Amino acid sequence: xxxxxxIGFLGCGNVGSGVWRxxxxxxxxxxxxxxxxxxxxxxxxxSLDKQRGITFPEGVLTIKPDDxxxxxxxxxxxxxxxxxxxxxxxxxxxxxxxxxxxTANKVAFALHWHELQKAAKKQEVGLYYEAAVCGAIxxxxxxxxSLQANRIDKIYGIxxxxxxxxxxxxxxxxxxxxxxxxxAQRLGLAEPDPAADVEGLDAAYKLSILASLAFHGxxxxxxVYVEGITHISKEDIRCGQELGYTLKLLAIAKRNGLEVETxxxxxxxxxxxxxxxxxxxxxxVYLHGHACKEMMFLGRGxxxxxxxxxxxxxxxxxxxxxQHQYPxxxxxxxxxxxxxxxxxxxxxxxxxxxxxxAPGVLSRVAKxxxxxxxxxxxxxxxxxxxNGRVALVVITHQASEKAMQRAIAALDQDIAKLExxxxxxxx
Length: 427
Prior knowledge:
Helix content is 35%, strand content 28%. It is built from 13 helices and 19 strands. Helix 1 (14-34) crosses helix 11 and helix 4 (106-123) packs parallel to helix 9 (201-215).
């Protein structure tokens, strides 16, 4: 017997169009496999006059949110708007009106997850968000269900395709950041305003969600340290390659007891690490659990059809559920038992300086580091002398973040001028 489900769309851009096409073209397969048939009754758009690549039936398109949010026949609402507002307000209204919500919106979800979940539980409806992190990769479902028999203590994620594409091009072709960014914009891989991607914010929203699920406790977006790739030079990438490292923008989360560190920043990893070979716009999540050990999820993290795949999967899960499930941790703004945010993590560091080419300079640099208990693992002089200075690259042993910053601040700029500092993950 086929179960009919009536749904409404909030927005219909590239991803919404992908879901429409997937439900239209793959609908009979879904009906056969899952016994479900989805009927799209209303699609909210900004303009009824805009030309689209889809021929919608008469009366489906609307410019009135209430046509979706208040229609008692619509059982599920799929949100494609992006951004915090009005997406959050409209998702909350849908939930309060007794409608299950499926979303790909990592911003509104990461910032207001606790309120959305509270409304969903109160109305006994579903809240599904697989597509909010890593597109078609089923990492949310895996953390919520498949990996429940694990204590996960580490996550390393390449969760933004735009920055991974840029860094891949810079690494393989020794190209400048600005030129690769312009090409990525031309190809549609980067937005006209790429700040959310290249400054690391997109990855930070996603890490907030992943870490909360993995560590069974609320990890607010505000607790994620964020640093983008705009300052990365091809010189740093080249130096790292000579030392056996590959540069990635990593979303990193680690838990030790109730203490959690969450950070997004350019990171050197060993070139033989599985994540080092994740190229182009692909996404990947590498994690460690006490029972499953090391695991890696790899796939397309963006695009209309990969993201549509995750959304339709959520629609199927929601429509098939006898009872909707919610994360079991205390999902509150200020939970009674909160994970503690660690801002002084430990890791090795890569430092590139322009140092005066004179006797005693290296010892003075080493003293600044030693005074803060930062131990030097390797030193390399790169390039030719230029205006009395040479490029000096230092790799430290594992050191405290705050100690490293103090050591850098203590450097005499007349002796050694800092050019770049990049964190290293050896595991």
